[in-house]
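Researcher: Hi, I'm a grad student and pretty new to this. My advisor asked me to get structures for two proteins we've been looking at. I'm not sure of the right format, so I'll just paste the first sequence and hope you can take it from there.
Model: That works fine. Here's the first sequence with its structure tokens right after it:
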Amino acid sequence: FAEARETLMKGLQIDPSNLELMHLLVAVELEEKNITSAEKLVGEMEQMASGSHFAYMAAGDLAEAKGEQSAALTAYQNAWKVQASDRLGNILWSRMEKDTDQVREKFLQEWKQRLPASFQALTIEGLFRQSKGSNAAAIETYKRSLAINQRQPAVLNNLAWLQLEAGDLKNALQNASAA
């Protein structure tokens, strides 16, 4: 982490207002359990660009590291409002386990709308459909995800399993082999 910190610090000497570099430095500090340093950086980010995607993300990461789940969720939701990303989608989805299916469905639809080329949103939707026993919908969703990114062994495996259960042996074997 020392080398990463040094590289990020050099980058910040060149461009001291680069929020992306600052967010990465916050991540390094948090990995090293340097909460005080991370807090200082997040404060600087909030002063420079309050309401920015990176400031919210860094605040969420800091709150998460401090065990402040509610504050982390709020920060990540604010970051999502400013700029959606697959990383944020995954973070927010992982916190929705206790939400109703309707709330989760609405979030998936928003994720797909805001990031139409996201294979991750489709993969999560496929898993969600499969968990609810909507296997035909899961198969179609997995296929759409693989159309965007073919290198997903878990998706290929899930698709093969569902195709086998549906009696589609040829495609099941093909997808199992590809996995």
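Researcher: Oh nice, that was easy. Here's the second one.
Model: And its structure:
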Amino acid sequence: FKKARSESRNKYADAKERQAAIGMYARREYRKIRTNLQTRPYKAALNERRTRTVLQQYDKAANAYKLIGESKLKKARRDAARSARGITASHSYPLIILSEAELADGDERNAIRSLQRAIRGKNPALQTYMTLGQLQADSGKLGSAVKTVAAGRKRFGQAAPIMIQNIALLVRAKRKTQA
């Protein structure tokens, strides 16, 4: 028994050697499949005109956000407005950046309109509801703010950030029993 056990132990290579051999085998045998699965659809999507356009528009929005930080507000607004046109006219990201540029430039009314436009879009982000709700509350429109945040809660469920904001707005609106 001892001899058989001893021989069986010696038949196997060290664990690190076995892992290295398995890694080499996987790389050799599955390289072509792995490459095709990972890069082909990604590269195809990047080469689509629609994808390139969206990425370019998002890049304009990111640049606008940077310009806001540099207090170049007119240029930021222009770039943000350009990012929220065409294919991305209803996307939350460019519209949130546009609203940030408008707010930084003192134009709260258009900032609210930009966020409302994003909410009417196909896939509004949670942040859109939260930012719009806060702007409405800050301008004294608590009823509108409560409705906006409630719509966000309906869409996103029990997401913690919007739940906290919802409770705070209901308390401010003196609707504590609903909070």
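Researcher: Is there anything I should tell my advisor about the second?
Model: You could mention this: The two ends are 73 Å apart (CA to CA).
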